[in-house]
Amino acid sequence: MSIDQQLWTKRTVKSYVYRESHDEKRLGMDIVFAAPVLAQYTAPGARHGESLVTEFVALKRRWKSETMFVSSSSQRIMNFAYQRIIGLGPAVIPLLLYEMLRAPDHWHWALAAITGEDPVGDDVAGRPVPVADAWVKWGRERGLVGA
Fold first, then answer.
1. What is the mean pLDDT of residues 55-66?
2. Domain count, the chain
């Protein structure tokens, strides 16, 4: 990833954090985007930038809207919009980690599918806040989330 792409991506993630916190009147948390670290998860030629963030936000809103009254976890994660988020690939990892920081939800499955890792222990599985904490810790250890 070039220096320009790294800077663009940093600005885009900060812009996303600002827009989401501004739209929902919440204080946003900044994500430190370490492109060299994320490069191990990112295929060459992967999309970055504002179009990716815009697509992620649209898919996230669609998923939340379509699964608002769905209690089954398997139905929630098999939703088309959720599967499309997974299909966006490793470039959305910082956005998913931010979502875990902001409002823990069913992002565990997407993160596990994209990264091929699962930092969640059996003792906390199924509990949203401890699951989110495990993923945020994972992101911090890899330099993907600020302290």
1. 92
2. 1
In a domain, 60, yes or no: yes
Say what percent of the chain tops pLDDT 70.
65
Q: Which pairs with CB-CB distance under 8 Å and at least 24 residues apart come from 80-86?
A: 82/106, 82/109, 82/110, 84/59, 85/56, 85/59, 85/60, 85/110, 86/110, 86/113, 86/114
| pLDDT for the residue 54 | 83
Residue 92 lies in a domain: yes
Give the model's confidence band at 47: pLDDT under 50 very low, under 70 low, under 90 confident, else very high. low
Domain extent, residue 76, equals 3-141
Phi, psi of 126 (to 5 degrees): 90, -5
Examine the pLDDT at 87 and tell me if it is beyond 70: yes
Flag whether 7 is in a domain.
Answer: yes
